[in-house]
Amino acid sequence: MYLTDGRVTIRPITTDDLPHLWAMTCKEEWPEWKNWDAPYFPHKQLSYEEYIALKEQKNRSRESRRY
After folding, report:
1. Separation between Cα atoms, residue 58 and residue 61, nearest integer Å
2. 67 pLDDT higher than 70
3. What element of type H or E holds 21?
């Protein structure tokens, strides 16, 4: 499903998005956005391989709950 208003499109995440999402969220030990994040959400730096493995594990878990 896509939602577009002419300037912004909201769509599901694709595998092409994963390198960019990893770089923004898990690549650095202390990313800039963490300065404004709530302190009760822990952050863990992950290698790209660890990030992909975690995403795959979460997807398998979601798939098993559907049935």
Report:
1. 5
2. no
3. helix 18-25
pTM here is 0.75
User: How far is the C-alpha of 51 from the C-alpha of 60, rounded, in Å?
Assistant: 14
Burial label for 31, CB within 10 Å (0-12, 13-18, 19+), is middle
pLDDT in tens, 16-63: 999 999 999 999 999 998 888 887 788 999 999 999 999 999 888 888
Distance in angstroms (rounded) separating the CA atoms of residues 42 and 59: 21
| Nearest CA-CA partner of 27 in 18, 15, 36 | 18
